[in-house]
Amino acid sequence: MKDGRVLNWNVQSDDPLCTLQEAFEKVNPRLGFNVELKFDDNLVYQDEELTHILQAILKVVFECAKDRPIIFSSFQPDAAQLMRKLQSTYPVYFLTNGGTEVYADVRRNSLEEAVKLCLASGMQGIVSEARAVFRFPTAIPKIKEADLSLLTYGTLNNVPEAVYMQHLMGVNGVIVDLVPEITGAVSDLIAVPETDVEINDLSGQVAKDAASTPNFTQREISFLLRLMPELVQ
């Protein structure tokens, strides 16, 4: 609790978890779902077992999702690949720590390996731990060149300045805990100034594009260089 108390939670008697179907039925249909496919890192799954699990999930999604925006994501490389193979309706993203932790499966150990996996299986994007994009910023243009979407997660994404820098670096989206707070703070940081009179003779769309395209100023570069060691640590 916020006051420091630690309470026991008896799931069965206090508040059982809802099913995926109940979530689809009771949550506002305008709210998109990131359906994360979780598996035990200490177990080796056979394709038959993975297929059975994923097909059970897909049955609920196809029956209940309707027009709700959906993406699938997973840290388990084989599960992510198989989900992409089993359906083409919804995007599949590969979740990775991007090298901030090391695993026996090399596909999980770098953004470079994540790109290879996505391209080999036709996945649409990567969800990386935010620290990885600051440690390995050169990976971002490679991800873009591969025509993959890049999202990030992690505690750094509750720092508005860190999210703002990712916006400038080309990250497509962030997963955060403090949604209203981060949204408001970052919106203030990226507010587009009024268009200068000198470009008023340009077409409206060109002027809008030029004004809204993020560019690194010297101040922003200096800020990034000062912030990076702390973020990486």
TrEMBL record:
Biological process per Gene Ontology, one example term: glycerophospholipid catabolic process
Catalytic activity: a sn-glycero-3-phosphodiester + H2O = an alcohol + sn-glycerol 3-phosphate + H(+)
Keywords from the UniProt entry: Glycerol metabolism, Hydrolase
Single GO molecular function: glycerophosphodiester phosphodiesterase activity
Domain of life the protein comes from: Eukaryota
Domain annotation GP-PDE: ranges: 1-186
SUPFAM superfamilies on file: PLC-like phosphodiesterases
EC number in record: 3.1.4.46
Name this polypeptide is given: glycerophosphodiester phosphodiesterase
Annotated source species: Aegilops tauschii subsp. strangulata
